[in-house]
Amino acid sequence: MTDPLTTSLQGVVPAIVDTHIHQWDPFTTPREASRLAPLYRRAPRLFERLLPVLLPQAKRELVLTAEHVAQPYLPEDYARDAAETVEAVGVPVEAAVHVQAGWHGPDPSEETAWLETLPFGAPGRPELAAVVGTADPRDPGFGAQLDAHARASERFRGIRFMTTWHPDRGVMDWIDEPCVMTSSSFLRGFAAVAERGLTFDAYVYSHQLPEVVTLAQEHPETTIVLDHYAPPVGVCGPMGRSTARSEGERRDLLARWRDDLAALAGSCPNVVAKHSGLAFPTLGHRERGLTRQQLAERVAPLVEHTTQVFGPDRLLFGSNYPMDKSVASYGVVVGALADLLADGGPDLLRKVFRDNARAVYRL
Fold first, then answer.
1. For residue 187, what are the domain limits?
2. Does the residue 2 lie in any domain?
């Protein structure tokens, strides 16, 4: 890793493409936070004090604070955060990919249609480059849902259906049963993704990486994008009721993650990985306001191993904003990643921060 605060992207890329952001408004669209958002708006300080009562442990540890999820996060908010990259690494953010964000309406394509109404690309704001929607491959109407997304936006490029499941009941699950991606109904329905030439963003926990191998080998013609390092939950600190409580447990967790990630990268050339979620609380981050050097030191094992096993042509940058905002600022996230990748040279930096995104999501 280079010395902190030294890596610049000037002369390497004209601007950054961020492949993982979320947009939401819990007041005007059906969201996970829509029920509690009015309470937060009326009394934010009281709400934060009552967070242990209002939210179960799994959700509290996922967000750390309600500040960024119980309020709208829209193009002007993202632009304000992303503007930090000019000072941090010398170049702006040009465009972003929205990834589905907990839409609770019965028709998931409505989220895609809603995104088309947002003022991306206005002066001083990044463009909306692509949309990754959601739909369940097990649903008999899955193909029709994909077509509805495509009608809603010409920017629609693929889906993410979150399948994270953890045996610790204190860790956030996004699905109610394990091994969904290897079920016959999922694998059968997934053919509709391949038929339409779409991508699939896979969000799993580290112990679920073998499931991604099964999916990728069953559908080798489909580009699968691994989100957030398939987070080894608690690798940076204890999580849930009993996960990663000791240094020994965290070492074992990291070792298994390294082996399983290498197996995925080596056996499935259709899988690419996002350098995203560096400051995601799910990794076990608890402190808020980490510095660039602190964040880089914490996530160096994840960044360096992922870079090694996937190689320069199969890596993308994603901020995971605003989910990572409770731990680190946007400039810190980008700067920490740039510092960790700098020894790979300008070719690696150019591909991670711009070129690979344009290829994978057909921008």
1. 16-360
2. no
